[in-house]
Amino acid sequence: MLRHPILPLPVLAACAAALALALGGCATGPAPVSPPVSASGPVDPIRAARWLDRVTWGADAAALREFESLGPDAWLARQLHPPGRHEEALPAAAVEQIAAMRIAQVSPEDLARDMEARRKAADAIADPEEKKAAQNAWQQELNRLGREAAGRFLLRALYSPDQLREQMTWFWMNHFSVNQYKGMIRAFVGDYEERAVRPHALGKFVDLLRATARHPAMLRYLDNDQNAAGHVNENFARELLELHTLGVDGGYSQKDVQELARVLTGAGISLATERPAVRKDLAAQYLREGLFEFNPNRHDAGAKVLLGQPVRGQGMSEIDEALVRLARHPATARNISRKLAVYFVTDDPSPALIGRLAAVFRDSDGDIASVLAALFRSPEFAASLGAKFKDPVHYVVSAVRLAYDGRTILNPGPMIGWIARLGEPLYAHETPDGFALTRAAWSSPGQMTVRFEIAKAIGSGSAGLFRPEGPGATDRPAFPQLATPVYYRALQPGLAPDTRAALDQAVTPQEWNLLLLASPEFMRR
């Protein structure tokens, strides 16, 4: 819970003005700004900042310098096709934090087996008090693994130069949503992001679909590890059709759900180290990759028809065939294109924009970078700059990026807490549809009040961001200086008169910071 000392009346008045500005100004946007996609001539810093606020996790000095140095075309090309770098591109202090995480030191297979062994050992304890203590310790360790994954994500979102890849990683984690608090998913949610989603975030959609469909986080979350011949579970099949590919209006039937569920039988998880006994005539179909297991003993080998066409493969090849069919379906092209347009352009994208993006999706065999390139060069994108309301994750990350401008935080914990308080906790949406990407979901008075409190925490001090976790650690308090050259060159000219007047009322730098971070302009991207 955020706690602050009682403020003097002038400060309270300015704070109230900031909240009123934020609540009153969220529904309106600035005048349309053309995207700076031509490398000829100087880059308008106002336009550049608005582009960065949309395509990255938020404008800061380093991103603005790179954008102006490379020029818009070269900068966008690098973002759409980033080099294969990971931690080496981050500041040393961020690299050290990630390297110290258990999820970076232990394989997901060993983590899962260790946590399962701890669970069984705790359950076997006879003494009630000892059992409760052991079970609580098990839960706390799972919580730590989940927080490590969230911390690693935030460090990358804050400091990676490959900002679009990090933003698309979050987008796809939300699209292929899992809830880490089901079972032991916390033990491998970090691996789900690292190996199933992030490598394919800008690649081919079919590869992303395959990777998520095989990962234990998804299989456990949607119960496909319980899906077997004679005991069919339709949960994963339904969400594959309704959410992950065709969409709720994609033209599939309940019969297609049933047939796809039969296709998916036998795909599950195994923590065992030895191969199970498989019927001799099916042995060649057995597949094991990490924790993923396809066991033909549990597969329904009968004939199946999916979306009006027979499924001709056998065993695991049936699943691959079905996933390719879903990924290449015209309804999938429309569904994914619409969702990208909602996230990057407007809450209600036009059929014309969706149609153009869907055509690129189909023509490129679902190449995500190609679809994004068309989206970023569209007139609709240009007209929307500065008007898209930030969801909580984008608000918190962009605030810290602007406030500390490359200074490496030592504790992502406060950010994890802020995002959770705002109602968008990482890896924890309760249902498979993921968090909403529209303004209506995040602009209520209650939401804005919490954003105001977070803006105050960031603007008045480090709020624990520079206090390493662990006993005896001390904070390195320092309130940020937001009145930087980036502000004067790229942000101030785009502020409304009411916002400038509110900033002029500030009596301390901390109060000025609060008013900027709580302004309606900063709520948008």
Report on the architecture of this protein.
There is one protein chain. The protein is mainly α. It has 26 helices and 5 strands. The chain has helices at 9-25, 45-55, 61-70, 72-80, 92-99, 102-105, 108-123, 128-159, 163-175, 189-197, 205-214, 216-221, 235-244, 254-263, 316-327, 330-344, 351-363, 368-376, 379-384, 392-404, 413-421, 445-460, 485-491, 497-504, 509-517, 520-523; strands at residues 267-269, 287-289, 292-294, 305-306, 309-310. The strands form 2 sheets. Strands 1-3-2 form a 3-stranded antiparallel beta sheet. Strands 4-5 form a two-stranded antiparallel sheet. Residues 1-14 and 27-35 have low confidence and may be disordered.
SS summary, helix count: 26
Strand order, largest beta sheet: 1-3-2
Write down the Rg. Answer: 24 Å
Approximate strand percentage: under 5%
How many strand segments? 5
User: So what's the overall shape?
Assistant: globular
Query: Into which percent range does the helicity of residues fall?
Result: 40-55%
Largest sheet: 3 strands, antiparallel
Low-pLDDT stretches: 1-14, 27-35
Helix and strand composition category: mainly alpha
Please report the distance between the alpha carbons of the first and last residues.
Answer: 27 Å
Mean pLDDT: 92
Salient structural properties:
525 residues, mainly alpha, three-stranded antiparallel sheet, two-stranded antiparallel ribbon, 26 helices, 2% strand, globular, disordered N terminus
At a glance:
The protein is mostly helical.
List the helices and strands and how they pair.
Layout: H1 9-25, H2 45-55, H3 61-70, H4 72-80, H5 92-99, H6 102-105, H7 108-123, H8 128-159, H9 163-175, H10 189-197, H11 205-214, H12 216-221, H13 235-244, H14 254-263, E1 267-269, E2 287-289, E3 292-294, E4 305-306, E5 309-310, H15 316-327, H16 330-344, H17 351-363, H18 368-376, H19 379-384, H20 392-404, H21 413-421, H22 445-460, H23 485-491, H24 497-504, H25 509-517, H26 520-523
Antiparallel strand pairs: 1-3, 2-3, 4-5
